[in-house]
Amino acid sequence: MFCKNCGTQINEGTTFCPNCGQNLAEPVAPVAIPDPYDHTAEFTEDEVKEYKTFALITYFLGFIGIIIALLAVHEDSKYINFHVRQSIKATIVSMIVCLLFIIPVIGWILAPLALIALAVFVIIGIVWTCQGKSKELILIRLFTFLG
Ligand SMILES: [Zn+2]
Question: Cα(11) to centroid of ligand 1, in Å?
Fold first, then answer.
């Protein structure tokens, strides 16, 4: 093998390079695996700064917030569109979960639990948004309608 620092040929299993002293046992830095649900890099900092409040309103107020955001943001903002889509998905999934209440006993137990879980995922989404991140909501991201 060759030293990864200076290129000197060295014997297999050597811990330190005899030429430059490079620690050869040192593991190569792991390559960061990109999160496919993290869209933060797709939006400009200015866009995030300008519209963060409206993105948050969509999560806090559901459909009412979505309408407010769409009325308030005149220009076509990819950032707002992204968060509006997340909020619409969360609202639709919540409505589907409410249908569980039709099922006696099991539905009455499952529906409130599922609604609490959804609320938690939306709260996590709100925290991400506050931090300037644009990530698809946990679990809700698995419902691929609306992208
Ligand atoms: Zn070396």
Answer: 12
**Ligand 1 centroid, distance to 7 Cα (angstroms):** 6
Query: Rounded to the nearest whole angstrom, what is the distance from the C-alpha of residue 32 to the centroid of ligand 1?
Result: 26
The predicted-structure confidence for 76-92, as pLDDT tens digits, reads as follows: 889 999 999 999 999 99
Q: Furthest-apart CA pair in the chain: how many Å?
A: 76
Residue 18 CA to ligand 1 centre (angstroms): 7
pLDDT in tens, 8-32: 988 888 888 899 988 887 666 667 7
Cα 6 to ligand 1 centre (Å): 4
CA 78, distance to chain mean position in Å, is 16
In the chain, where are the structural domains located?
1-31, 40-142
Q: What is the whole-number distance in angstroms between the Cα of residue 16 and the centre of ligand 1?
A: 8
Q: Supply the pTM of this predicted model.
A: 0.74
With left for phi above 0 and alpha for psi between -120 and 50, is residue 146 left, alpha or beta? left
What is the spatial distance between Cα 146 and Cα 41, in angstroms, rounded to a whole number? Answer: 20
